[in-house]
Each structure stands twice: as C-alpha cells, then as structure tokens.
Amino acid sequence: MNKPKVIVTRRLPDLIETRMMELFDCQLNLDDSPMSQADLIEAVRKADVLVPTVTDRIDSAVLSQAGEQLQLIASFGTGVDHIDLKTARARGITVTNTPGVLTEDTADMTMALILAVARRLTEGERLARSGDWTGWSPTSMLGHRIWGKRLGIIGMGRIGQALARRAKGFGLSIHYHNRRRLHEDIEKPLEATYWESLDQMLARMDIVSVNCPHTPATYHLLSARRLKLMRPDSILVNTSRGEVIDENALVRMLGAGDLAGAGLDVFEHEPAINPKLLKLTNVVALPHMGSATIEGRHAMGEKVIINIKTFVDGHTPPDRVLEAMF
Fold first, then answer.
1. Which pLDDT value is given to residue 324?
2. Does the annotation mark 187 as catalytic?
3. pTM of the entire structure?
4. Distance CA 26, CA 304 (A)
5. C-alpha closest to that of 7 among 22, 21, 23, 28
6. Residue 125, C-beta contacts closer than 8 angstroms, at least 6 positions apart
C-alpha cells in the first residue's frame, strides 16, 4: 500500500495533522463536526485507513458497508468499546488504539475529582463568584479530610496503579478489585489490599474510583444493588466510561443522601447528561476531559501515526487490539 487513503473523523492537534498530510493521502475534518452514521459509512467505503475517536460509533451497521480496501482502523483513544471488534475481525480489518500515553493525565484528573468532591471545591468556587460570600466562618463549606481514608479502585490496570501511587502520597490506604490479583512486586510498594469480592470492598470504602474499561462484562457493573452497598458517607468517582455505572440509580441515591457525593468525568449517555444530576450540589461534573492535555493528545497522535506506518510497511502494528484483551 503506497500513500494510503486515511480519513480522520475529528480535528487532531495541528502538528499531528500536518505530519499525517506529509505521510498519507489524508482527508481531515477541518470543522470538527461529529460524523453521522451516513458520514462514517461513506468514509469506510473509500478509506484504506479510518482514524476514528471514542465518540464515533463504528458498529456492525457501519462496518458491513466497508469497502474491500479498508484494512485498518487506527483509533485515536485507548478505549475500543465504540468499535465492533468481532465484525472487524470477521472482515479482516485490523484495529489499533493508543494505550499508555493517557495514564498519568487520567490519574491526575481522578485524584483531582477525589479532592474536588471531598473538599467541595466547585461549590466553594461558585460561592466565591456569586457575590454572596460574607467571609470566613468556622462552620462554612465543611468538607472531609481524605488523609487516612480508604480508597477502593475498580480496575487496577495502568491508570488504576497510577492513581494508587498518587493516592498513597495523600495518605489514603489502597484497596482494589480486579479480574486478577496483581503480582506481589506491584502490590507491595503500593501497600494495596486485594478484594476478590467487589461487593465486600464497596461496603467498606470511603472513596470508590472506577478505572476499568467498558465491556459487555462491565456494563452497569455498579448496578443499583451494588451502589446500595456503599456507605452513605462515601464518595464515587468515575473517569473510565459512564456505562459502567447505573446512572439513574446513582442520581436517585445522591439526591436521597444515600451517597455523600460523586465526581464524574464520563456519563452513560454522553454528551447528554441527566438534568437531575446537574442540579445536585454534591456532584462535580466534567465534560470528559480526563485525558485532555496537550502532551497527551500529541502522544496519542504519534501512536496513531506509528500504527499506520507500521501496518502499511507490512508489519504488525505495536498497538493492535485483540478481542481477548477486553
């Protein structure tokens, strides 16, 4: 394949787009408008390589219309729940992603959300701007100390471990639930406690952070039943995928005072956000910006380029995604 036809679904950083234009026969999305299903079908009919993002739904309806020339989907992002991997494999289409480069940024944001909810940062910021603040008071804007509290991490992959390193520095004790227990060489420096039972862990934590990918197995992993296991003074943070939590159940519990608060960077039906969620003062809501750093976006773009170049040169791309990985 010489100068493959590469179609990019959204605006990428200028440096990355410039490099892609140099290397490939590249079609960019200059106005950054999200592609409709019809747009995506048109793209897969003529592209050799499609570069989608996590908001593009590359399902069987789209892939069934793909031309024979489509050989690679080089996704700009770590999660691949937006791509029908089974259909892609059946049609001989290789899929790649950009793992690793977002780890530290997402862990930073997760830690920021823990602090923001526990110390009521966004409530305080709104009060400072409102003109209603009358000055310091011993009982005003009381939050909770996180030093000495228990943090339960659901999903102890790269991001979960990076969060654990940060949280340990803030004096939190580290607990985790994972498909498999970590090796002692990883677990011991973090002083992390493994819970085989997610239910048992949830009932004992002060703070719970969701850091697992969205797969069929993790859809509504935090169901209404499991959310009710959490203590009413506990905090829930999610920087993974909204679908992991039953959002309607979460809204009910937060509104009823059955949970102390939540920090959410992702939502079950984003970009739509439950209006009831936005009315709750004990919720910090962010617009899916956990990985939004200049450095992170450049590193993602470089990985996409390397994956395409490696594939075009006839080799297995370094970030090839296999169904068994998820």
1. 62
2. no
3. 0.90
4. 13
5. 28
6. none
The verdict on whether 126 is a catalytic residue reads: no
- Cβ burial of 150 (10 Å; 0-12, 13-18, 19+) is middle
Is residue 302 flagged as an active site residue?
no
Of 226, 241, 247, 268, the catalytic one is 241
**Distance (Å) of CA 98 to CA 101, 149, 304:** 7, 33, 7
Strand, coil or helix: what is 302?
A: helix
94-96 β-sheet, strand order? 25-27, 5-8, 49-51, 72-74, 94-96
Q: Which residues contact 198 (CB under 8 A, 6 or more apart)?
A: 154, 177, 221, 226
CA distance linking residue 86 with residue 83, whole number of Å: 9
Task: Report the first-to-last Cα separation within the chain, whole angstroms.
Answer: 30
- Predicted pLDDT of residue 325: 59
Question: What integer pLDDT is reported at residue 191 of this predicted model?
Answer: 97
- What is the rounded CA–CA span in Å between residue 15 and residue 19? 6
What pLDDT is attached to residue 13?
Answer: 96
Give the pLDDT confidence score for residue 326 in this predicted structure.
53
**Given the residues 270, 298, 302, 320, the one annotated as active site:** 270
| Separation CA 284–CA 282 (nearest Å) | 7
Which residue, chain included where needed, has tokens 């997402």?
106
Give the per-residue pLDDT at 323. Answer: 75
Q: Using CA atoms, how far apart are residues 235 and 251, in angstroms rounded to an integer?
A: 13
The one catalytic residue among 57, 82, 150, 288 = 288
Q: Which stretches does DSSP call E strand in 231-307? A: 235-238, 261-264, 283-285
- The angle formed by the CA atoms of residues 59, 65 and 67, to the nearest 5 degrees, is 120
Low-confidence ranges of the chain (pLDDT < 70): 1, 324-326
How many angstroms separate the CA atoms of 79 and 255, rounded?
A: 30
